Amino acid sequence: MSFDTVRFSRADINNINLGKRRPLNPLNWADRKNKNNKDKGLAYKVLKGRRAGLTIPAIIQPTGEKFCPCKKAGCCQDPKFYTDLYKSFREINADQQNQLLAECLEIQEPKSRRIDPKNAIKIKKHSYSYSVKVRGRRIPVCRMRLLDTFKVTNNRIRTIISKLESGKVTFEDGRGKTTGWKNTICIP
Ligand SMILES: [Zn+2]
C-alpha cells in the first residue's frame, strides 16, 4: 500500500485557519482522536463497522508483579521495569508500537522435529523467542510476560509474526502518524 502524504506544519494550519469561524484542527477529528486514545491505551469509541458506537474501556496498566514460573532474566525484574516499558510503549503510535513489538520477536528454525514433516498434520514452521529491548540491550522474556508488559493481545503478536514471516521488515506504513509529532501534523 502506498499513500500520498501531505505534511502541514503548525504555521500552515494557522494560515489555513486565518479568518475561519470554525478552525480546522485535524488532531480533533473524531476518528483521529479515537485512534490516539486507542494507541495510548485509553478508552475509545468504535466509530465504524459492526461494533460501531461501542466504547472500549481503557486498558488496565500492568502491575509488573511476577506471575510466570520462569527464570528468564526479563521475567524477574522489579515491577517498575514493566510499568516503565508500558508507559513508553503507549506514548508512541500504533505503527511505531508494531515496529517495537517486531523487534521483540526473534524467529528461529525449530531445533528438532520430533515428527517427520510428511506425517505431521500441523507442522510448526518456526519457533519464536521473545525479548524486551532496554537501552539497546535485549532481555529475554516469555510470551506471557511480553503480552502482559505491553498489554497487547496474542492476535496482535500473531499478525506481526505472519508479516515478519512473509518478509515485511518495516511497520511504519504512513497511516495515523499524528501522535508523537509536536509541530508537524501529517495528513494521509
Ligand atoms: Zn516468564
Helix tally? 6
The profile of the biggest β sheet is: 3 strands, antiparallel
Instruction: Summarize the amount of helix as a percent range.
Output: 25-40%
Tell me the β content.
Answer: 15-25%
Compute the gyration radius: what is it? Answer: 20 Å
The average pLDDT value, as a whole number, equals 83
Give an overview in words:
It is a single chain. The protein has 188 residues and is α+β, with helices and mostly antiparallel strands. It has two domains: 1-58, no CATH class; 61-171, no CATH class. The protein has six helices and seven strands; from the N terminus they run βααββααβββααβ. The longest helix has 12 residues, at 79-90. The radius of gyration is 20 Å and the shape is globular. The structure holds zinc ion.
List the keywords.
7 strands, three-stranded antiparallel sheet, binds zinc ion, 188 residues, alpha+beta
Secondary-structure map with pairings?
Layout: E1 6-9, H1 10-17, H2 30-40, E2 44-45, E3 55-56, H3 79-90, H4 94-104, E4 105-108, E5 127-134, E6 137-141, H5 143-150, H6 154-165, E7 184-187
Antiparallel strand pairs: 1-7, 2-3, 4-5, 5-6
The chain binds zinc ion (ZN).
Zinc ion binds at residues 68, 70, 72, 75, 141-142, 144-145.
